[in-house]
Amino acid sequence: MKKELIELRVNRRTHEIAIEPNMLLLDALRQTLGLTGSKRGCDDSSCGACTVLIDGTAMLSCTLLAASCQDQEITTIEGVSEHGSLAAIQKAYGDWGGAQCGYCTPGFIMTVKSLLADNPNPTETEIRAALSSNLCRCTGYSQMYEAIRAALDAERKGIAAVR
Amino acid sequence: MSLPEFKLQRPHSIDEAIEYLAKYAGDVRVIAGGTDLIPSMRQKLFEPKYVLDVRGISELRGVHAQPDGGVMIGASTTLSAVEKSEFLRQNYPVLTEAARTVASPVLRNMGTIGGNICLDTRCLWYNQSLAWRKGCGFCIKKDGDLCHVAPGGTKCWAVFSADTPPALLCLNAEIEIAGPAGTRRVGLAGFYTGLGDNYRKLQANELVTRVFLPKSSAGMRGVYRKLRIRGSIDYPLAGVAIAIRRSNGHIADAQIAMTAVNPSPMLVKGAGEMLVGRAIDETLAESAGDLAARIAKPLTTSALTPEYRREMIRVFTKRALLEAAKN
Amino acid sequence: MKSRALLDRAAEGGCPHVRLQMSDFSIIGKATAMVDAAEKTTGTGKYTDDLALPGMLVGKILHSPYPHARIKSIDTRRAERLDGVVAVAVGKDAPNPFGILPVGHDEHALALDKVRYVGDNVACVAAVSESIAEQALELIDVDYEVLPSYFDPEESMKAEADLIHENKPHNIEKDYHHVFGDPEKGFAEADQICEARFLANEVTHAAMEPHSTLASFELDPHTGNLGRLTVWSSTQVPYYLQHKLSLVLEMPMSQIRVIKPLVGGGFGGKSEVIPLEIIAAIAARKAKAPVKITYTREEVFWAHRGRPRTIIDLKTGVKNDGRITAVKARVVQDGGAYCSYGVVTILYSGALLGALYDIPNIQYDGYRVLTNKPACGAMRGHGTVNVRFAFESQLDELAQKIGMDPAEIRQRNLLQPPCITVNGLRVQSYGLPECIEKIVERSGWRERKGKLPQGHGLGIACSHYVSGAANSIIRSDMPHSTVNIKIDRDGGVVVYTGASEIGQGSDTMTAQVAAEALGCSLSRVRVVAADTDLTPIDIGSYSSRVTFMAGNATLRAATEVKKLIAAAAAKKMNCAPEEVIFRDDLVCKPGTHASEQAAPAQDPRGLDGRERPSPHGTENSATSVSGRVEGQILRGSLQQKRKEEGPKDAMTFEEAVVAAIDFHGALTGTGSYAPPQQARGGKHKGAGVGPSPAYSYSAQVAEVSVDEETGEVTVHKVWAAHDCGRALNPVAVEGQIIGSVWMGMGQALTEEMIWKDGMLMNPGLLEYRSPASVESPEIEPIIVESIDPEGPFGAKECSEGSLAATIPAIANAIYDAVGIRLHESPFTPERVLAALRAKKNSKPLNLTEGVDPTQPDRFREHGGALWFKGKGPRRHELDPARSEAPAGGAD
After folding, report:
1. b/e burial code for range C83-115 (CB count within 10 A of at least 16 → b)
2. What is the ipTM of this complex?
3. Which of A149, C325, C578, C873 would be C186's cystine partner, CB 3.0–4.6 Å?
């Protein structure tokens, strides 16, 4: 099939890539741009491992056509680290056991990023509801709540996050 | 699983979209949120030559209060936007509640109200990969000539599994459909056929563009109850929406609708007659539950047994009514 | 050894709470972020599917559409002609059979003459893109002769003809019949006996990462033919993979390198050689190019190897004082079409009736049965889980019959270790009593049990698991784990281990044990793991063996290399080598280390038991920083200083290392671990499975509520106490406990593989319902430390043992809440409601299609009809039943 030239804005950079129109954003990120942090865990848009931000909103990159995402700002897990060091949420996930095998972790981090952008002080119920978009098979989710709390505390105290 | 090959068009206006639809009629699928179409295309349930991405059409988005007191919702308004609209929450709470139960928060960021209305009917014998379907010998809805759910017949029983349409039915919603000959407005109840395969009345060159909720439904108290095994992600295995208006402690207006137990979402006929003029109590609520359960016809299209799903229509109807009658 | 002395004191005093003070250790016992945490949270870590090689092709596998069929012919010519297809591999390209167990070599990478389940592997296309490979699959013409199929295990056992494997009469893979003690006498002595059938439906690992393998050949430098093979694979067992590749490809193991990148969860699903791992290599050989195959999620379900659906006919007798007199279990496992780990699974199911409680008489009849479904294998809690569900449920019923508290009946049947159980299992450390005490206390059991409002309930159950198998499946006297350590002049420690990190924290444990043993900071230690070219053999990450076995091997390697450093340091410090203390990046004479004077005991957790200081935030003291940061710069001046100074009391770790290298040459050490002979079990047939050097113990209380109108069960909280010997890394141990309990809850409530005539109706994460965050309860992990005498620093298993108790704890809580005993898992709302309605004698509704969940007799199939009898015109051109389709014909 004939490839088309498109422009994607990913992590604040513009990339011009040639893709087939049926290419999913996830495949464009992973295969064409080499951004393998977003993962594929299912084929039925159920698991959330491929979650990215599109203009700041969490979406599944496995369910978006790459060519449909032109003119939008795409943020992947690779765009989350701040000035080369871990964002508070990344550090907290590590410290509190929020990541075990780590395969779902990039998706969760993106979901949490969008949650905290909308709601900087979520209740436990709100956190649980937000996290229900992503499946994890290792942690039972509990340690993620602690990580999110810790990250919020750290942000508040200004310890971990480099702004 | 790769997607079939297609050409992508990204129109920026409804007119442009209609032009494309007219041009490619019969070999085109419309994509908005993609949450229904993309997994199905992976499974080779659809192999269109053209895909029309309507996400770029801004006139299809937004919740707009109407001068007459009703509301117009653009078809590609996301379910998140519907869920978060303060206007809808105030005036049409049953829709807000139903929208909030759809799939998961991230999927609601993508899925649209129009997509939810047009959601393809689902069946465990149908929503499977091409390789899987070869194993079962295909079915009436796609590539075959038999229904595995009701093997004797020739009717497709794939089940309509969206959450917002029963709420919209209770609110007497209308939808606007645009086509080469202009637009038409139809009651949502008349949009569905009751068939699993050809489940909606929409021509290949037409597009659902808007949803209208009338002023007369504004302020109806509403409840949506959804049967699901998992508290997120899942499609409904049964769903009941109710909307009632009370006056002096008695029901002045009432609608009950169901989803995920028939090939179409359905208003429960006779519910109004049964309820109007009476005060809701346990007995009345149970009678309404029995009425709804009689109309539900769940089959083995889904997880959980049909008998159980029918029973939950009964229980959920009762509970929804009692809940709506509170305070 | 100090810890040993304390342990002895604990044993004498009978005090279960004696723990080593934290000051005894610098590294272990502290909540430590995983050494690979940043790779995972930033997305930079590479899993197999993230890898690519120049010229790499995509492999796609053609699967059988039939559950049981003979392959009459395969014609790949049309597929080969498709532009972009490089090679099409079929069974005869590598016909040697393999299987994870030496007794179960019944699989072929690609089918030779028969397919045995829907999804069996028939051919593989290597092409330049995924879509071309998928198109090519449709062009492979296979002519099948469909054979009668077997789906229900009890039906399958009656088979006389059309056997799934010709050498397995009645489709029985293996049966075992064990009698220990005198069960008949035991039942005669019992005051109460319960006997019932339990059914546990099939569940699967559903690890988030679908299996993926990348295979690449190098050219032989002399001939230009294909030479060495390198395979990157999502595996828990790189060495078994190397071995099976060697067998099937007929290449020496020395010519095969297996590398395990990050693995996105295993739970047993990657603990044996999965067909794609070999198929990728076959395809790469045929295509003469690197080939990567990544399973679709559906293929993961077909590859499966999960927990078999199981029939348990269980009979238990107790005296009125609560003592168990005898247990009789007949277990039938629906193993699917291949042996896989099946022989081990069916043996674990019997063997681990022992070693939890003191049971004097046991009769066990186990049948592993073949059916035309994907093979079952090892899954978290291998073999024990379904039987434990039955046993703990029945024990609850017996407690009620004799009017005893369910917690107490468990306390009445405790073992008295050290001991050997009636079926030959050696038990030493035994934290079960403390586990029960802890959960009874934390859950408010005594105050709340039976006193909650209608519809709410509490249930208790216990479980246990091995810390690795004492006898390896390859039946050799080879050590189960070997570890090498190398220390460089700058004080950098590299640990080479074959142990496989799969998310459980294997690499972190290795680094912690090495750092603790060497007295150096954690940041000095780098772990190189699971690369068969670089790391010494370790048999893999399964049966919870890594901490115990690889941990011990690491400890021994570190001890060996430490001796070399101590000898050199002792010379510098004028003391005896055995006096030298290694601690906090210092090497010193006795009486000089700060911790010996007045180190306050520091518990990493605060008073509430939950707060922990950030593992990275405050830990780095000046000493550890100097080791890492200043090492390179200071080396020259250190050497200078050393020449100037006379004998001293203390040296930095780095100085000591330099001294040792100057003295001995290169600093390396090797340690290995083989389970002791006494732990290897009895002599009866099948005695090899079950014995372990140590067992973990778990006790749990679940709090649930049941909606009596809908049958929906909500788990509100689970208190889970787990005896892990010693928690080397509390945050990781808690993570494993929580994860196990949570996965058990999934099996208890929502997870179930739904079958219809061999078709899996829910081969995806949408329909196979692994719980999401909203319905996942609070789980309070309670660490119990029994300090095992043989575990590394006393540690043993923590990743599997907790799973099994959760299911019966929930079942027992449901009984407490609404008075129904469910004998079939999962406890879906339809099953719960059916039982509730039967109990209330309400209008009967056929909610469960004739199978009473309180007295189930058979497995239920999904409704509807599979087989296609119509011959209409709208049949898809790919429909295998389409009569006019050219079957295997040339185009």
Report:
1. eebbbbbbbebbeeebbbbeebbbbbbbbeebb
2. 0.97
3. C325
The answer to whether the CB atoms of A24 and B3 lie below 8 A apart is yes
pLDDT exceeds cutoff 50 at A29: yes
Handedness of CA C873, C879, C883, C884 (dihedral sign): positive
C-alpha angle B110-B114-B116 in degrees, rounded to nearest 5: 70
For C380-408, how does the pLDDT look when each residue is reduced to its tens digit (9 = 90+)?
A: 999 999 999 999 999 999 999 999 999 99
pLDDT over 70 (residue C15): no
Q: How far is C743 from chain A (nearest CA, A)?
A: 7
Assessment of whether the complete model's pTM goes beyond 0.90: yes
Furthest C-alpha separation in chain A: 54
Report d(CA C375, CA C115) in Å as an integer.
12
Q: What is the pLDDT of residues B271-312, one digit of tens each?
A: 999 999 999 999 999 999 999 999 999 999 999 999 999 999
Give the length of chain A: 163
Are C129 and C136 contacting, i.e. CB atoms less than 8 angstroms apart? no
Three-state DSSP state, C218: strand
Cβ atoms < 10 Å from Cβ of C405: 18
Give φ, ψ of A149 to 5 degrees. -55, -50
Whole-angstrom distance, CA of residue B59 vs CA of residue B72:
11
**Rounded distance, CA C471 to CA C686, Å?**
11
- Collapsing DSSP states into helix, strand and coil, what is residue C366? strand
Residues 6+ apart with CB under 8 A from C789: C4, C7, C428, C429
Q: Determine contact, residues B321/B94, Cβ cutoff 8 Å.
A: no
Q: How far apart are the first and last CA of chain A?
A: 45
Beta bridge partners of C650: C588
Q: How far is CA C513 from the centre of its chain?
A: 21
Under DSSP, the state recorded for C579 is G
Identify which of C521, C508, C626 has the alpha carbon closest to the alpha carbon of residue C38: C508
DSSP per position, C279-321:
HHHHHHHHHTS-EEEE--HHHHHHH---BPEEEEEEEEEE-TT
Q: Is C326 helix (H, G, I), strand (E, B) or coil?
A: strand
> What's the gap in Å between the CA of A85 and the closest CA on chain C?
10
**Which pair of structure tokens corresponds to residue C195?**
């006997």
Average pLDDT of the residues in A118-125: 94
Count of CB atoms within 10 A of residue C429's CB?
Answer: 25
Q: Name the residue type at position B17.
A: A
- In this complex, do B231 and C774 lie within 8 Å of one another by their Cβ atoms? yes
The pair phi, psi for residue B220, each rounded to 5°, is -70, 135
Q: What is the pLDDT of residues B130-156, one digit of tens each?
A: 999 998 888 999 988 888 998 877 899
Those chains having 3 or more beta-carbon pairs within 8 angstroms of chain A are B, C
Nearest Cα residue in chain A from C30: A95
Instruction: Please answer whether residues C187 and C317 qualify as being in contact, where contact means their C-beta atoms are separated by less than 8 angstroms.
Output: yes
Chain B CB contacts of C866 under 8 Å are 136-137, 148
Nearest CB partner across the interface for C879, out of B1, B144, B303: B144
User: Does residue C37 surpass a pLDDT of 90?
Assistant: yes
Helix (H, G, I), strand (E, B) or coil at B192: strand
pLDDT reading at A85 higher than 90: no
A52 touches chain B (CB under 8 A): no
Both tokens of residue C861? 């199939």
φ, ψ at C274 (rounded to 5°): -95, 140
pLDDT tens, position by position, C834-858: 999 999 988 778 899 889 999 999 9
* Distance (Å, whole) CA C325 – CA C318: 5
Give me the sign of the Cα torsion angle B27, A23, A102, A14: negative
Cross-chain Cβ contact C267/A142 below 8 Å: no
Q: Residue C559 burial (CB < 10 Å; 0-12/13-18/19+)?
A: middle
List alpha helices for C308-380, DSSP H.
342-351
